[in-house]
Design a protein that fits this description.
Blueprint (H helix, E strand, L loop, with lengths): L13 H8 L5 E5 L5 H14 L10 E5 L2 H21 L3 H13 L4 E4 H11 L11 E2 L2 H20 L4 H12 L5 H15 L4 H10 L15 H31 L6 H8 L1 H12 L5 H7 L17 H23 L5 H10 L1 H25 L1 E2 L1 H12 L10 H9 L2 E4 L7 H10 L9 E5 L14 H9 L11 E5 L1 E2 L4 H14 L16 E2 L3 H8 L8 E6 L10 H19 L2 E3 L5 E3 L5 E5 L5 H11 L3 E3 L9 H14 L4 H9 L7 H8 L7 H11 L3 H22 L2 H12 L1 H6 L4 H19 L6 H13 L17 E5 H4 L4 E6 L15 E4 L3 E4 L1 E3 L4 E3 L2 H26 L2 E10 L2 H11 L10 H4 L6 H9 L13 H4 L5 E6 L17 H16 L6 H5 L3 E3 H8 L1 H4 L30 H14 L8 H13 L5 H6 L2 H8 L2 H8 L2 E12 L8 E12 L5 E7 L9 H27 L3 E8 L4 E5 L11
Parallel strand pairs: 1-7, 1-8, 2-3, 2-6, 4-5, 6-7, 9-10, 11-22, 11-23, 14-16, 14-17, 15-16, 17-22, 24-26, 27-28
Antiparallel strand pairs: 12-13, 18-19, 20-21, 25-26, 26-27, 28-29
Length: 1235
């Protein structure tokens, strides 16, 4: 592999340089958090484009990103990098090539994998016999279509000849009066199948694992190898627990501690006998033989502490013995059923599962048919259709001719966030890349430690397997190349060292699915922090803090979340008071702002409590919620209004609408209406009250009924989105919400509801009823959405979000709270579980005998899923800790007993660094990992001292705080009890009066248009407008210009004076000054204008060639012929300011003629066709021209002077009425600033 030598002035690390230039093999770049992977990717692309040997065009690259936003950012950054190269290179040939690449950038394949698949499917849709004009169904449309498909499928299943089997499956999987549980099961099976390259085969394999009718021994079972490996793994748990228990007592004895004699005896005799019996049993090969040797009905003796024996050793020893007892009891339980009994449990579930899979397959076919009828595809369709096009077998095993065309087209395939791909996506990528791993062109970037989307069925093991398989040796030509980018350019050294300190101890392949070693550890690269600290007046403290919160027994009124929120609020207020500084984007230290702080949560269940505390403290907090939209009061009210419009006979939505803030009917008023007729629906009672009563309430009811009638008509004949917006406008509800507390959020929620309606209408679904039904379904299946986002990056607020929401973001200061909360293992505690390897693992369910019992599949799957879930939680913790740039604060709740347990775990060293595997693998919360790890730090005086190089030489800084509620001060808010009602009233009265009496100081500017024409300014400044004489509405002035073409019924009449003037201007615009001033030649020229369609025949007939002849024979025409430059119909824009105090406004106009004479002096010339004979003498006619056009000509002059910087001699008017030039007196119009 030929890697160019790195220049000395290059800022890239050696590993980054290698990642930029390595090629010739499949390359996997393991890029740690903050390692600059995007910059490396962009530079790699640019280097491939600009290199002199074998350069690559940008459209020969396939770049796959995880999100549309990431794709857009990469395209933009690549364009900026190419533009920068163009500016910095002197090579003309390279500049031309780079400009071509900028043009090609719009055609470049930089997109999500879904977008690439869309391109493939649209281009080759004819191979699949699908409509190439398909559209992608929205989330709403797909959900409704799936619901309709499942309803049809279940109805067909219950009425089929195999209905008994269907009822049996429903009884086993539904556990209730309806089929909702079975419906969820069908949806989940379908979703799991769709991430497989061959969904049908994956589904068909599920019942085969339960088909054990002809099997006599466990070794004949298709999953026997996995089963016995699982049993061996459980045995290892027992062995480790026993050795930990015995080793601890032996170590304490050797250290001279007084070990409880009874406990020591049990460990060496009774407990040893039990363990030895289990060990010997596990040496047998047959299941029933193991059962015969396995201890049954174990009776555990209870040790008693003698006098003088060490209490601490006794307590710890008993805890370890309890762990051993629990491991043994769980293990022995596996052997409570014989070989045949285990197989029969599996066999009994075979038929129900086979029936279930048939229903799923029918659902798939029905759903496909419905999509085909509507010309709709969903996201998974894109990938599966692309796979069919790109492979000969349709499942990705062998590339098709089209795939080979893509292989030839793409010089390299680059995949960002590779750890978040699934099996199906990997198969597609493999089809469009060239070669094998040892000579391929696939470049993958990611960080498996940040793979936190397993719930979306992504597969991090794809990354892990390649990382193990690939080599770091550049000369190894047998496999791909793996490159580690572990230098972090985001965070301070203290933050990185603290993160490494934790993960060196807790993450390895057995618990976290990856070994956290020196290749995986974060290395410090942000040396600019040291420079910033030297320049800063206040160097910020940069320690990582864990506050181990321990509420006192005496005062435990507040929830844990509220207590944490109070602590965070106190810390933020303290920082503001102290003037804490952080490093800005420009590298300069600046005062901390609220937006520099993020609060991360594993889930947002505590968000309302935290938000309430921050509101009391006066600290602005924005909470990013994935749920809560349907719970917002304003959304509930609007949905009630819509339901009432759909069907006013629904009493509850109708009453909710009447009680809404925009109608404000009271309970007493509703009761009076109800009494109009107690025996009819409330809507009819409303109608009756309006008809039979004549009071003020009846008037309000009649107004409501009229509005309702109008809305119902709009719902029937108009669009849903228009209906919703009409309700907003007519009720003024949108404006009303803006004046309420948290008004921006409330208004954003209403806009989101409107946007949802627009998205719904873009599907094949229509109508208010179906929209409301869709909303109800979302609520039923708990598919709520988050409240609308209304803050921007510029808003100075603390942001609170989930760890998943923070991925890819960074903040100077990060809190992660609620670390004591237990992990969610709910998916492993139900009747059934899903797994890509095992498919559907279900317990034995016997509804008649009311029995539920674990099967071999559920036992294996539960252990596997719990291990994967813990690995995912560990990666989530890693993502959270690596969001912090300067300060990381970890918060949680721990009792004194939990702290003591953490110290005990910390005291046991399994390897040089790692916490004991048995403890890490049983963790139920983040604190189960963090507390023991932090307890080993030298900054923790209560923790155990471990005399090893790793713990002695660690450079991290930990500030450990143990707090009880009594130590927190009261919230620093104004005591409402101390404020009198009078003071409150006075304060609010002053605010209200100030608001309502406010007068905008620049009101005159609001009346001034931002842009005007010269004619409008001219009219405004003439005496006629200043002292107007009101004309008769039936009289049209001589100079009036029609803004539109005249009606056809008057077009045969003579042209107006204005139309005649326009015709003469057209002639003056085009006639050459050098034309012979003969009447015949002028007439011939005018005829050419008609031929060129610049004049109409009617306009030609009103032009007298003698008028043009007289102009051409005049002195001004001779002056034009001698001029240096002549401009005709010259447009201009001029900043006109009426007075010194007024705002400038744009003024636009067109000058008939501007010329510069032989002496360099400019002249403005305007042609006028006004009839002036009626004004009397020549002098009076000239005076009328001045009055009409003095302002206009002087504005022309000022605009030309400003634009050309030439001295303007005169402004001239040539009158076609008396055929003379008139000089317009010079005067300043408006305000002109002296320079």
């Amino acid at each position: 592999m030929n890697i160019p030598k790195k220049p000395n002035d290059v800022i890239f690390t050696d590993e980054q340089w290698l990642a930029i230039h390595a090629e010739g093999r499949d390359i996997l770049v393991s890029a740690a958090a903050g390692s600059g992977k995007t910059h490396v990717l962009i530079t790699r692309l640019v280097e491939k484009i600009v290199r002199s040997v074998d350069p690559v065009d940008v459209d020969e690259l396939l770049v796959v990103t995880f999100t549309n936003a990431a794709a857009a950012e990469m395209r933009q950054r690549l364009g900026e990098a190419l533009e920068e190269k163009i500016q910095t290179t002197d090579n003309r040939q390279l500049q031309e090539r780079l400009r071509r690449q900028v043009v090609l950038l719009n055609k470049a394949h930089i997109s999500t994998l879904h977008a690439f698949c869309t391109t493939v499917v649209r281009q080759y849709a004819y191979l699949l016999d699908i409509d190439p004009g398909f559209r992608l169904g929205s989330e709403q449309e797909v959900a409704l279509m799936q619901e309709e498909a499942l309803e049809e499928v279940l109805e067909r299943a219950y009425s089929s000849h195999a209905y008994e089997a269907v009822y049996d499956a429903a009884d086993r999987f539904s556990h209730g009066r309806d089929d909702s549980k079975m419906e969820e099961l069908i949806y989940s099976l379908y979703d799991y199948a769709r991430v497989e390259p061959n969904p049908g085969e994956w589904l068909r394999q599920i019942p085969k694992r339960y088909d054990v009718k002809d099997i006599q021994t466990l070794k004949e079972w298709s999953l026997s190898e996995q089963w016995f490996a699982f049993v061996q793994e459980q045995y290892e748990t027992v062995r480790v627990a026993y050795e930990a228990y015995v080793s601890y007592l032996r170590m304490m004895d050797e250290e001279g501690r007084v070990v409880p004699k009874k406990l020591y005896t049990l460990a060496q005799e009774d407990d040893y006998t039990i363990f030895e019996q289990i060990r010997l049993a596990m040496q047998e090969k047959e299941w029933d033989a193991i059962i015969r040797l396995m201890p049954q009905s174990i009776k555990w003796s209870s040790p008693r502490k003698g006098k003088g024996e060490d209490d601490e050793v006794n307590e710890k020893g008993k805890e370890l013995r309890d762990d051993f007892k629990k491991a043994v009891n769980e293990f022995v339980k596996l052997f409570s059923r014989s070989e045949q009994q285990l197989l029969r449990d599996m066999e009994e579930m075979y038929e129900p599962i086979r029936t279930l899979i048939r229903i799923v397959e029918d659902f798939h076919h029905t759903y496909e048919r419905m999509k085909e009828e509507e010309g709709v595809l969903d996201f998974s369709d894109l990938e599966h259709y692309a796979l069919q096009i790109l492979s000969t077998d349709g499942h990705g095993e062998h590339p098709s001719e089209i795939a080979e065309l893509y292989q030839e087209q793409f010089a390299e395939v680059l995949v960002d966030e590779y750890q978040d791909t699934n099996i199906l996506q990997e198969r597609i990528i493999q089809l469009v890349k060239k070669g094998e791993e040892k000579n391929g062109n696939l470049f993958m970037v990611g960080d498996v430690k940040q793979s936190i989307y397993r719930f979306r069925l992504e597969e991090p093991n794809l990354f892990l397997k390649k990382m193990k398989r690939f080599s770091t040796d550049l000369n190894d030509s047998t496999t791909g190349l793996v490159i580690h980018l572990n230098k972090n350019f985001r965070s301070r050294k203290e933050v990185l060292d603290s993160t490494n300190f934790v993960f060196y101890q807790v993450m390895d392949e057995r618990v976290g699915e990856i070994t956290y070693d020196d290749d995986a550890a974060l290395a410090y690269g942000a040396t600019y922090y040291e420079e910033a600290d030297e320049r800063a007046e206040h160097t910020p403290s940069c320690e990582t803090v864990i506050a181990r919160i321990r509420p006192s027994d005496e005062k435990n009124e507040e929830s844990k979340a509220v207590f944490e929120a109070r602590w965070m609020a106190r810390r933020i207020r303290q920082w503001l008071k102290e003037g804490k500084q952080v490093r800005g984007d420009d590298g300069v230290m600046r005062p901390m702002k609220y937006r520099d702080i993020a609060i991360l949560q594993r889930s947002m269940s505590a968000a309302p409590d935290i938000a309430a505390v921050f509101q009391e403290e006066g600290i602005p907090l924005y909470v990013e919620l994935s749920k809560g939209f349907f719970d917002a009061v304003e959304v509930k009210i609007m949905l009630s209004v819509l339901a009432m419009i759909d069907n006013p006979y629904q009493d509850i939505p109708l009453a909710a609408t009447l009680r809404a803030p925009f109608y404000r009917f009271t309970n007493e008023e509703l009761a009076r209406i109800r009494l109009a007729d107690r025996n009819v629906p409330f809507f009819e009672a409303l109608q009756q009250y309006a008809k039979e009563t004549n009071d003020l309430l009846a008037e309000r009811v009649r107004h409501f009924l009229q509005t309702l009638s109008r809305w119902r008509s709009l719902a029937r004949h108009g669009s849903l989105s228009n209906l919703i917006w009409t309700i907003f406008l007519e009720t003024k509800y949108y404006e009303m919400l803006g004046a309420m507390p948290n008004g921006k959020q409330r208004q954003a929620n209403l806009r989101l509801l409107h946007d949802r309606a627009i998205a719904y209408e873009q599907t094949a679904n229509r109508g208010l009823f179906r929209f409301l039904r869709f909303i109800e379904r979302m609520k039923e299946v708990d598919e709520d959405i988050g409240e609308a986002r209304y803050v921007t990056e510029e808003d100075n607020v603390v942001q609170m979000m989930t760890v998943h929401g923070s991925k890819g973001l960074e903040y100077p200061i990060v809190f992660m709270s609620s670390l004591h909360k237990e992990f969610n293992f709910r998916d492993t505690q139900g009747t059934y579980m899903f797994d890509q390897q095992y498919g559907l693992a279900t317990k034995l369910i016997d509804p008649i005998k009311n029995i539920e019992r674990d099967t071999m599949l559920t036992l294996m799957t539960k252990t596997k899923k719990e291990r994967e879930m813990r690995a995912e939680e560990m990666r989530i913790l890693y993502v959270a800790m690596t969001r912090a740039k300067e300060q990381l604060i970890l918060l949680g709740y721990a009792t004194e007993k939990e702290e003591d347990q953490a110290f005990a775990v910390a005291s046991r060293v399994e390897e040089e660094r790692k916490l004991p595997t048995s403890d890490r693998s049983k963790a139920r919360s983040y604190f189960d990992w963090l507390l023991p790890a932090i307890s080993r730090h030298t900054d923790c005086p209560e923790g155990p001292f471990l005399d090893t190089p790793f713990f002695n030489q660690v450079e991290t800084m930990w500030q450990l705080e143990q707090l009880s509620e009594d130590e927190l001060p009261e919230l620093e808010v104004k005591n409402e009890a101390s404020v009198t009602e009078h003071e409150k009233e006075t304060e609010w009265t002053e605010k209200i009066e100030a608001r309502f009496n406010y007068r905008y100081p620049h009101k005159e500017a609001t009346m001034q248009p931002s842009k005007e024409s010269v004619s409008e300014v001219n009219r405004a400044l003439t005496e006629e407008v200043t002292h107007p004489v009101q004309p008769s509405p039936l009289v049209v002035s001589e100079e009036q210009v029609y803004p539109f073409e005249r009606p056809s019924f008057v077009q045969d009449q003579a042209l107006t004076a204005a139309e005649r003037g326009t015709a003469i201007h057209a002639v003056m615009e085009h006639i050459p000054w050098t034309i012979e001033p003969e009447e015949s030649k002028i007439a011939t020229f005018i005829d050419t204008l008609v031929t060129r369609q610049l004049l109409t025949e009617e306009e030609r007939n009103v032009i007298d060639p003698k008028d043009i002849q007289q102009f051409l024979q005049s002195p001004i025409a001779e002056q034009l012929r001698r001029a240096q430059k002549v401009y005709r119909e010259l447009p201009f824009t001029y900043a006109y300011q009426a007075t010194k105090e007024s705002e400038p406004q744009l003024m636009q106009g067109i000058i008939d003629c501007f010329f510069v004479d032989e002496n360099g002096k400019g002249y403005v010339l305007d042609f006028k066709t006004d009839r002036l004979k009626k004004y009397g003498t020549k002098e009076q006619q000239i005076e009328e021209l001045y009055r009409r056009y003095s302002v206009q000509l002087n504005l022309y002059r000022q605009a030309v002077e400003r634009a050309t910087q030439l001295p303007i001699g005169q402004s001239l008017i040539y009158s076609f009425d008396f055929h003379e030039v008139v000089e317009v007196p010079m005067r300043t119009i408006g305000y002109i600033e002296e320079t």
